[in-house]
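Contributing new complexes? Match this layout with 1,3-dihydroxyacetonephosphate.
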Amino acid sequence: MLTTGLLERTAPLYDRVRSVIPPIEWPVFAEDIDAILALKRERNAVILAHNYMTPEIFHCVADIVGDSLALAREAMKVDADVIVLAGVHFMAETAKLLNPNKTVLIPDSRAGCSLAESITAADVRLMRERYPGVPVVTYVNSSAAVKAESDICCTSGNARKVVESLGVDTVIMLPDEYLAQNIAKQTQVKILSWAGHCEVHERFTAAEVRALRRDYPGVVILAHPECPPEVVAEADYAGSTADMSAFVGREKPAKVVLLTECSMADNVSVGHPDVSFVRPCNLCPHMKRITLPNIRHALETMTEEVTIDPALADRARLAVERMVAVR
Ligand code: 13P
Ligand code: SF4
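Output block (do not edit by hand):
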């Protein structure tokens, strides 16, 4: 029930997000936020939240926020009994791989990813047969079964470093074709790719970038490397979600557009009131499955627990650990 005490307790949290959440919406969130904060203490739980979570999750209940690489790195350091992964399923699997003895919960296990869906373990084995001896670098946006067939993982934040860390002239990079093509432009290493795409980023077009420049003179355009190469080529900068956020903090552009998922601009804008955000964006339906009510439900019922097939967990973990070791 919404009491005056509850509204008073949550008022400092509302102050963080008042620029992106209208006052009329706050009472809808306040009760779940208050309950989640109490449940975290009760369960000795932490919430790891991806940059695409909505602001009331990202700024009001999360303990650790970041891109896929930061969430994997931070998952290794967690000192709690329970991890709630506010993000998509492959992120929860990665946290579980790195914390086999902790309880890892995902608020909605249907939160998938078109990239993870684009390839199976059998496909990776076929690629190895076709290109014998060529190492397989797999984007973390993949299932644990696919990771288990891989030599090393990468994220959009470290893909080039990972590819070059192997000391070979050719690698197979799965499953994101556009990330592979964008990285291929930055390195001498030959990259063989797969035809997976992010359903959110593949929708941005070069014509859209040109229209943004025409309609918003002076706008600085940042793109995620899951965007098609022609989009990245027309942008001013490409980087992971954390890289884009850092760019805004460092360069403080007067006007910026982030060619990525919609919640990114909301979350980043909160810390940069002087930056004007132009907001054409595409929603990720998988990320948007995660809500305050289902985070609360996860902590109340201790569901849905993420498990990994023991037959592949060790091999999948090795691929993630090798990635985290690349600096
Ligand atoms: P980042 O690793 O850049 O956060 O990207 C994850 C993702 O799913 C992008 O669509
Ligand atoms: Fe997957 Fe794209 Fe959604 Fe990221 S934005 S989780 S890559 S579908």
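Reviewers usually confirm one structural detail per submission. For this one: The first strand starts at residue 45 and ends at 50.
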